[in-house]
Amino acid sequence: MAQMIPLFLAEEETSSSMARQRVFRDLNDLLDCYDDMELVRRFRFSRASISKITELIANYLNFTERSCAAPLTCKDGINVSQASASRYIRDVSLGLQVIYHQFVSLPAGLKRVEVTNKFYEIAHFPGVVGLVDGTHIRIQRPSENEANYKNRHFYHSINVQAICQPDGIFSDVLARFPRSVYDSRISKNSGVGCMLKIAFQ
């Protein structure tokens, strides 16, 4: 079944005296423009992943019939206005936030035993349920507290902590602290950190 996504818009001129009409192009038309490797290179997701994510968050996307503002031309040839791009990014982000816990969670029960066994097979270290690491994700310059977000490489970023299982699946992701916050503080203030604190008191 074809899926209609407003992110991929084309404009049609009906006549010089009439307003432009928005035409929703089929997501599959856009996906067919690229082979599998090019899709991953440009969008960081495979064809199957894009279709699955779209299906999962379709109910959280707001399709509106607003008039088009000045177009923003992306390097990938997708022409949308800046306002539309911002709305779509917001809607997709909120949709992903709603379904997040269906896919990202700490292993429990038999899954936890399976994960600790896999880690033991890899490094012969018992009782490991995840690997924790942090990274800086580049962001646009914030309008407030800018200095807190500028990192040592002189670009703005947030400090993201992630916990991963042995097969590369995320168990936890925390992405809300500015660059200036130390990893130890992020760990202490994370849900996992609070859980460990209670467990080992």
Question: Which key features would you list for this structure?
Answer:
201 residues; alpha+beta; three-stranded antiparallel sheet; two-stranded antiparallel sheet; 40% helix
Radius of gyration: 21 Å
Total strands: the figure is 7
Shape: globular
Q: SSE string, helix = H, strand = E?
A: EEHHHEEHHEHEEHH
Total helices: the number is 8
Low-confidence stretches: 1-17, 67-74
Helix content: 40-55%
- Estimate what percentage of residues fall within beta strands: 15-25%
Largest sheet descriptor: 3 strands, antiparallel
Mean pLDDT rating: 76
| Major β-sheet strand ordering | 5-6-7
N-end to C-end Cα span:
53 Å
Structural class of the secondary elements?
alpha+beta
Number of domains: 2
Please provide a written account of the structure.
The chain is of the alpha+beta class and 201 residues long. It has two domains: 99 residues, no CATH class; 90 residues, no CATH class. 40% of the residues lie in helices and 23% in strands. The protein contains eight helices and seven strands. A three-stranded antiparallel beta sheet has the order 5-6-7, covered by helices on one side. The protein has a two-stranded antiparallel ribbon with strand order 1-2. A hairpin with a 5-residue loop joins strand 3 and strand 4. The protein is globular and about 55 Å long. The N terminus is likely disordered. Keywords: Metal-binding. InterPro entries: HARBI1_dom. GO terms for molecular function: metal ion binding. This is Nuclease HARBI1. Its cofactor is a divalent metal cation.
